[in-house]
Amino acid sequence: MTETYRFSNEYGDLTRLPLFSQTTNGVPHEVPSGLDATVASPPPATSDVDWALVSALRAQASEQLSQAVQSGRARLGKEAQQELGRSIVLDLIESAMAEAVDAGLGSWSPAKQQATAQAVFDSLFRLGRLQPLVDDDRIENIVIVGHDNVQLELIDGTLVPGPSVADSDQELIDFLVFLASRSEVNARSFSEAQPSLHMRLDGGSRLAAVAWVTTRPSVVIRRHRLMRVTLDDLVKRDMMTPVVASFLRAAVRARCSIVVAGAQGAGKTTLVRALCAEIDELEAIGTFETEYELHLHELGRHKVVIPWEARPGSGERGPDGRQSGEFTLDEALVDSFRFNLSRQIVGEVRGKEIWAMIKAMESGTGSISTTHAADAVAAVRKLVTCAMEAGPHVTQGLATSKLAATVDLIVQLSLETKVVPGGAQRARRVAEVISLAPGEKEPGYATTHVFRADATGVAVPDVLPDEYRRLTQHGFDLPAYLASQPLGART
């Protein structure tokens, strides 16, 4: 839109509001690697916003926008629609302020002007009442159990309560249904027939939601604040020691196949990004995720990154158990064999896609993946179970032997929550690193703790298999490792 709107001095110049400044889409906002993560206070609630008024203005703006788009001869793209929406919101705000003055309610403060305009625009094009939380660089994760029960995890691990994100649970559900259906890149269904929702948001955050099968609608939004992260950055954040970082860096460069395991929210994706930062920029990489989280294809660190994203199907399942349009990680991995990739990076192994991953590792090395597990040895059992989901032809013995022959290292992350003054705080760290090798007896594989958690939960050197001494060629600090080994393990 090129038309300029002029407002009286009584209302102020709304074009100066942050709502109407240009924003950047694409790669999510990130915390610089050297940022001090100390947070002095929790994010403030938007107290200047009348949400009933916002809802009414949003309905008017939506109707006007729809009419304008339908009457236009050319199809407006997303940016053009937003620009048109900005002018509509400005006009509605001006009218609302004039009505307030005529009714004897007084003029709006600049803060109320700004907050209301931003809220209407966010409700129309973005995440509504969730948007201020997603935009706050102090917040890493948003956990919602009902519209008025919100927990925020800040970037230093502190947990604090957050503001309500809707006026009722039904309003929250209605918003999630709208959000799922409007996605231009990968629309999802969210209904009583499809009660779970997993999707990527504009800006790169990941949303998981569930309703109807739980007592209250629940939502988790994971924001990715550490994007261009390195192993040295994680050392500075006390996630690992310099010796662990030295070993993992050398393992990636030596093309060891690595599985990162841990609980939900333990930092697996962040560690995978840091490991991938050690891959040569000229290597061709494929990433495989249910929703894009790694964002290696947007960071510009590697010349060739081909990102695959799974796609849920729709409608009833056919005789083969598949929904129309469904595209699985298993299919993506098989598809990738024709793309001359140097490495395959799987965001999370949940099922039979590990079998395709094993095939990839048999023909190449250096793959990296993640999975949920309580400890490193349990991760092996979890992967065996996942591989057996590929069909009856994959027996436990076959799955075990294949995994033992293709996976080199398992890195286990721990997540500890402790009570601190004013709330709680989470600490993430590397707790174990084990090497995996074929074994002649039950259970069919042998594990060695290269690093084992000490009494404080920090991974410290334990036993180094002889074959990993070669990692000194790739920068492994062997003297520092040996100096920290327990006396009984030194040779």
UniProtKB/TrEMBL annotation:
GO terms for molecular function: ATP hydrolysis activity. This is CpaF family protein. Gene3D superfamilies: 3.30.450.380, P-loop containing nucleotide triphosphate hydrolases (3.40.50.300). InterPro entries: P-loop_NTPase, T2SS/T4SS_dom, T4SS_GSP_E_ATPase. Residues 213-418 form the Bacterial type II secretion system protein E domain. Belongs to the GSP E family. It holds the Pfam family T2SSE.
